[in-house]
Structure formats: structure tokens, C-alpha cells
Specification:
Radius of gyration: 19 Å
Strand content: 15-25%
Number of domains: 1
Largest sheet: 7 strands, parallel
Order of helices and strands: HEHEHEHEHHEHEEHHEEH
CATH topology: TIM Barrel
Structural class: alpha/beta
CATH class: Alpha Beta
Number of helices: 10
CATH architecture: Alpha-Beta Barrel
Shape: globular
Helix content: 25-40%
Distance between the termini: 35 Å
Number of strands: 9
CATH superfamily: Aldolase class I
Length: 317
């Protein structure tokens, strides 16, 4: 008799492994026929929450917009270095140039078009990912995104972090949830080959676990194409580090994070891609929590808890 495994007993349909949620890797393999790798790029854009348009200094956890791009220089030079680094670890031929640093829809239409045209034409690119804020999605920008998506599929990543305006004010996000919704719906209604990914951060100052779960519940009603779930990292030189050092902020405990992510996954629509369940922090910049350095172990324990409770993505929706 064939031995039962977590994979063989997995009731979640959009998975080819033990994962009880739809992973980014699964989605990309189904769409493009094989593994795809994101290559982080810095196109030199700023942010309205840094230059004074809606605030100064950025969000309290922001360390200056470091994107993990390979060095500096032209997009081609960064991309080439990134592809070489990834190819030394994995066998992969499909890539996603990822305009990650700061707000990549914040600039003149001419400059945005120039950057998007260059990025989408990089060798091996099958999709272009653009990180931005929902309050930087004007009608002119969404028209440009639609236009660009006619040449290459787009993944637009929106940093929401929390649906609670009290939290947004506390972390100096610079826009309300209502302003997020305006941008989100403008992008959705414009159409095109555009996937929308929304980021949530667990462990933000002043938030309870129930508030974090409420953010996922509210976000689920929008039916985003993708969701990224992050842990709040304390990085050197940020306002958040000062709060932590002074005792005004405490990091989220490992067990609480795992419990919260499982509750959030249960609430997300079945077809939404759960593109991340935890994240990386720059090794030399991380102040706390130390437990997040073992990212794979955290992800494995999330899988174990989903299995133990016999639950999966969308079960509680």
C-alpha cells in the first residue's frame, strides 16, 4: 500500500506539493511552463512619502528603499548581474525584471515609459513586475500600464500593509485605506494583462493579531490576484529601530506569526496566489527578530499547522 503523505492528503486543488495554498512558483509554472525568477532592479525613482509630497522619511520601517538589486548602474547591468546570481543557484531560463526600489509609478509619464520599455525588453523576460503605491496610480499611469501590458504581462505590487487607518498613521504610510481603494479599483477597471499583488505586514506597531486577520479578511473581498504576507523586520537606522531600542515597540513572536498567517490563508480566495508567507531581511541590517532568519523553518511550520488543523486556503472564506 502506498504510504500517505501530506502531499497525497492535500485537499487544496491548486497545488502540486504539500502546500495548502497557491504558491507563486505553482502559478508561474502553470502560466509560463517552468520556473521563473524575479530579478530586483532599482530604476532611481523616489517616493511621495520621502520627497515631501505626502510625507518625509518614508514609512517607519523603511531603510531607504534598498531593493536587493545587484549593485548599481544601468538596468541592463543590474539585470545581468541578477540573472548570473540566480543562475548559479537554480536552473532557470525565464525571468521577471522587478522594479522594486521605492515607488515605480512615481515620475513623469515619459520617464516611466522609458523605464518600462527598457525593462520589458530585457533578455529572457516573461513578465514585468512593478512595485508601487495605490495613491500613485493616476489615470495617466494606469493608461500607461495598460499599454505596457499589451507587450508583456504585468505584475503590479501594491504596498497596503494594513487596512487600519490608525496603523497607517502610526507607520507614516502617507495615505488612507480609502485612497488605496481608489487606486486599486482604477487599476483593476482599466484592464489589460495586469495581475495585482497586495502586500500585508504582520506585527505592525499597535496591531493585535485579530487586526492583522481583519486586514486579510477585508483584502479578500477585493479578490486580488496575489497577496504577499510579510513579517515586520526592524532594520538598522530606521525610526522603527529607535522605537524598539526605547522599549516602545516589541517584535512579533514566532508562534503568534505562524498562527496569524494560517488564519489569514484560510480567509483568502481560493484562486488568489499567496506569493509570500514570510520574507527576507538584509542579513547585516536586521536588528530583530532573530528568529526570522530561518525563513524556511518558519514556512515549514506554517505548512505543518495547516496540515494539523486540516485547513487550507479559502476554507474559512
Amino acid at each position: 500500500m502506498k504510504k500517505e503523505t501530506q502531499k497525497s492528503k492535500n485537499p487544496y486543488p491548486l497545488s502540486d506539493s504539500n502546500k495548502r495554498y497557491q504558491t507563486f512558483d505553482y502559478y508561474m509554472k502553470k502560466r509560463f511552463g517552468g520556473k521563473c525568477a524575479k530579478i530586483s532592479l532599482d530604476a532611481g525613482f523616489s517616493c511621495p512619502n520621502i520627497d515631501g509630497t505626502c510625507g518625509h522619511g518614508g514609512c517607519i520601517y523603511c531603510s531607504g528603499g534598498s531593493s536587493g538589486a545587484q549593485g548599481c548602474g544601468s538596468l541592463l547591468a543590474q539585470y545581468t548581474a541578477g540573472v548570473e546570481a540566480v543562475s548559479s543557484k537554480w536552473s532557470v531560463e525565464r525571468f521577471i525584471p522587478y522594479l522594486q526600489a521605492h515607488t515605480n509609478t512615481y515620475g513623469s509619464i515619459e520617464r516611466l515609459r522609458e523605464v518600462y520599455d527598457e525593462a520589458q525588453s530585457l533578455p529572457g523576460a516573461v513578465m514585468l513586475a512593478i512595485a508601487t503605491r495605490a495613491d500613485c496610480l493616476s489615470p495617466e499611469v494606469t493608461d500607461l500600464l495598460f499599454e505596457t501590458s499589451q507587450r508583456i504581462p504585468l505584475l503590479v505590487e501594491l504596498g497596503l500593509q494594513s487596512v487600519h487607518d490608525s496603523t497607517a498613521e502610526r507607520i507614516n504610510r502617507g495615505h488612507t485605506f480609502n485612497e488605496f481603494l481608489k487606486g486599486y479599483y482604477r487599476l483593476r477597471e482599466r484592464g489589460g494583462d495586469v495581475q495585482i499583488s497586495v502586500h500585508l505586514i504582520n506585527g505592525l506597531p499597535g496591531e493585535t493579531e485579530d487586526m492583522m486577520v481583519e486586514s486579510a479578511r477585508t483584502l479578500a473581498t477585493l479578490e486580488p490576484d496575489m497577496v504577499k504576507l510579510h513579517l515586520l523586520h526592524i532594520l538598522k537606522g530606521t525610526p522603527l529601530e529607535r522605537l524598539y531600542r526605547s522599549g516602545e515597540y516589541s517584535t512579533m513572536e514566532r508562534e503568534a506569526y505562524i498562527e496569524t498567517v494560517v488564519r489569514q490563508i484560510e480567509l483568502l480566495p481560493e484562486k488568489t496566489v499567496v506569493a509570500r508567507i514570510t520574507g527576507d531581511a538584509p542579513f547585516d541590517s536586521l536588528v530583530a527578530p532573530e528568529w526570522c532568519r530561518k525563513k524556511t523553518a518558519v514556512a515549514n511550520d506554517i505548512d505543518k499547522l495547516l496540515f494539523f488543523r486540516n485547513t487550507w486556503q479559502g476554507k474559512a472564506k
